[in-house]
Amino acid sequence: MAMQAAASMFPQLAPRRGSDRAVVLAPPPPPARVAMRRRSSGGVAAAARGVRCRASLIEPDGGRLVELVVPEEGGRREAARREAAALAHRVRLGRVETEWLHVLSEGWASPLRGFMREAEFLQALHFNAIRGGDGAMVNMSVPIVLPLGDAQRRAIQASGARRVALVDATDRPLAVLSDIEIYRHNKEERIARTWGTTAPGLPYVDEAITNAGDWLIGGDLEVIEPIKYNDGLDQYRLSPAQLREEFARRNADAVFAFQLRNPVHNGHALLMTDTRKRLLEMGYKNPVLLLHPLGGFTKADDVPLSWRMKQHEKVLEEGVLNPESTVVAIFPSPMHYAGPTEVQWHAKARINAGANFYIVGRDPAGMGHPTEKRDLYDADHGKKVLSMAPGLEKLNILPFKVAAYDTKQKKMDFFDPSRKDDFLFISGTKMRTLAKNRQNPPDGFMCPGGWKVLVEYYDSLTPSADSSKLREAVAA
Amino acid sequence: MAMQAAASMFPQLAPRRGSDRAVVLAPPPPPARVAMRRRSSGGVAAAARGVRCRASLIEPDGGRLVELVVPEEGGRREAARREAAALAHRVRLGRVETEWLHVLSEGWASPLRGFMREAEFLQALHFNAIRGGDGAMVNMSVPIVLPLGDAQRRAIQASGARRVALVDATDRPLAVLSDIEIYRHNKEERIARTWGTTAPGLPYVDEAITNAGDWLIGGDLEVIEPIKYNDGLDQYRLSPAQLREEFARRNADAVFAFQLRNPVHNGHALLMTDTRKRLLEMGYKNPVLLLHPLGGFTKADDVPLSWRMKQHEKVLEEGVLNPESTVVAIFPSPMHYAGPTEVQWHAKARINAGANFYIVGRDPAGMGHPTEKRDLYDADHGKKVLSMAPGLEKLNILPFKVAAYDTKQKKMDFFDPSRKDDFLFISGTKMRTLAKNRQNPPDGFMCPGGWKVLVEYYDSLTPSADSSKLREAVAA
């Protein structure tokens, strides 16, 4: 891959200047306009909550970033590996569970220190938030849990074990789970409360719940070494700590995160550029964009991560986004497609990576209803729920303006309702269909190099394509 | 009914002593042991939160008890009635909606001031809590909403009306709903997030959701006059304000609430008596029990309210509970049978009525799964969820000890696992089956007069009984 042109956006390839890593940033003037995002909707609805200004990056949930990878010093990893290999019980992780192990190990879910015990699971399901040790609520909307089959549950409980090894498909130890708690995996209730439906055909449910065990095992994690996938993309998998370091190195005084699982078109780019402009107008001196494609499990008809990264690279090479103010990295979480519930997770995880502004669009983390001809979620619920969510008060939510293709100007622009017939809405489905059929989108919809990647991807899928081609790399 | 013997428990029949209504109560010594109820369960689970001592009754949610009935003074009710009669749009309330109107009108759902608008609905569904005007979270776990059909929705929206009349089955105006907001009633999502299942056969869903409109209308309420049912039981329907007055009159320095929808047996009575003993040991001087049967919609095989009230009366007449320290009143809410979600509503509403202690048992608000051979909820989830619920921090949760029939002592007693074979568990279903078959339960299970009422109730149901016999009185 020709990555040079994009080097300054891809921080892991940029030259490091060690001397300015510890710079303490001056606080920007109060960005008063942002406070307006909290709509007053009468009754006892969400009240305006002030914007918090900080002299440095936003604080992680719980006050301290959790990092669960055993330090290298003093042969501690080797010791952990030996201990894990000697433990009587080994729980084998599937693809999605390994992605969650990755997520937990780097503190995206801070202050969680491992797979959820029942108290955390119940709070996530019922309140989308968990009370931390200090009594404060932190947001936590999706259960991060580890299923366990009944035979293994009985064996572990009969032995009285308090620690188990977590291993990969080849029985290689990945982590030790300690002070364990085993409790029932009520799948129906979990699905209903997370997705707001129990209709068959939810991608995450099919992938990671339906055939999973009827028990869940929670506990504290010690992860033996950083999770790697060896798919040529590991250098983009920056941990929250690494991202925070990069933002500090760049003297960022505001970080705005953009979660995506689709190719970037010029409407997205317009939005990100416009957001930076707005932040500068608010008085921030150096707002930095975290362009943060999701890297974990996605449904079969989404474009795979490796192709999306190639597409993002072209978009950056062709100058659609400003390299100086953009950091591209992979967010290791699997995708739930749980709409308003999941968008909270997407936002919360980015707080832990240092983002204090979060861009939210129409129908975030949404999809079609699996059995009915409609979207599963109301397109506005995501941003409404996000703006009211407990534990996200410190995050500034930036709702999307709607961008569409302006047939008069021949470019993507913010939709102008006064001349609505001039605009063309090109959905993700429409975009994918065009690329599949090797048709071109209208000029100015996406940079040519980026579009070419998309067409190549669909070309690479023959009608008889083995379904494994649609799969992402699995952590090795 | 021969109510005299129970007069002092039924406050509305007791002689009033106006002089002591305004007594300010001295704070009891700190009840340190109660703080232990918050289990430490590791990780980021619920932390111990201190017990709040108050010099008077516990504060209502939002700081002030909401009362939405138009005051009688100055002909205001007549004016409201005239206005309502003249409004262009009338939304007709069914039985359950009228019960919610009753609930809202008296402030059980404080700080809610009317049927939920979308922001409140979404917060209830996703967070089981709503952010009040002061930014603090108050608990609100079940949606209190008013469905609207599509034709009426279009008519209201076309007219631009901001106020509509709410009327009963005979078109009599009950209330005015103002500053209205109309939004979609996504039934599947509402059901999944409230019950944790979408299985057919949920009693509340069948009664109030399945055939309801596809829209919801929220707004602020002015209720024209107090809701009455004219079923001979209205004198037990004390509002939160009336209950607070009664507790003050009795110089209560602790109020412990017991929610029930079943006949009282001696196990319940033991529990309530024991709770009072524990509160006295903690240093409270005058703990008062609020025995608070639910009076709204219940499923067809529950014992109807009128028979339950007769049964409670007998239990009190026969001295099973102490009249001096018991207030019996009806809680006007309909029943959801939504387990851990609903128990929060049951507890929250009692805060508004002045209760600072809440007794919670096994599987509160639970029922059998409608389509599978198991309980719908884990029997322990109710008390766990309740103890962690946002907005209920100020309420002291008292988990049930399990009472069962001790065949050696021939009485209900707390279950002793060291001689477990001596105990007999008699479920609600078992109790109902015995009464239906005119069989007697073991001596000491229930006072004889109370049992007789139950048998009479089942006798009154002939095999060909019209199903309307199973229905409760509807607000007139």
UniProtKB/TrEMBL annotation, chains A, B:
It is an enzyme of class 2 (transferase). Gene3D superfamilies: HUPs (3.40.50.620), Sulfate adenylyltransferase (3.10.400.10). The keyword Nucleotide-binding applies. Residues 58-225 form the ATP-sulfurylase PUA-like domain. Pathway: Sulfur metabolism; hydrogen sulfide biosynthesis; sulfite from sulfate: step 1/3. One of its GO terms (cellular component) is chloroplast. Keywords: ATP-binding, Chloroplast, Nucleotide-binding, Nucleotidyltransferase, Plastid, Transferase, Transit peptide. Pfam families: ATP-sulfurylase (PF01747), PUA_2 (PF14306). It is found in: Plastid, Chloroplast. Its main location: plastid. Residues 234-457 form the Sulphate adenylyltransferase catalytic domain. It comes from the Eukaryota. One of its GO terms (biological process) is sulfate assimilation. It catalyses: sulfate + ATP + H(+) = adenosine 5'-phosphosulfate + diphosphate. The keyword Chloroplast applies. Belongs to the sulfate adenylyltransferase family. This is sulfate adenylyltransferase. The lineage of its organism: Eukaryota, Viridiplantae, Streptophyta, Embryophyta, Tracheophyta.
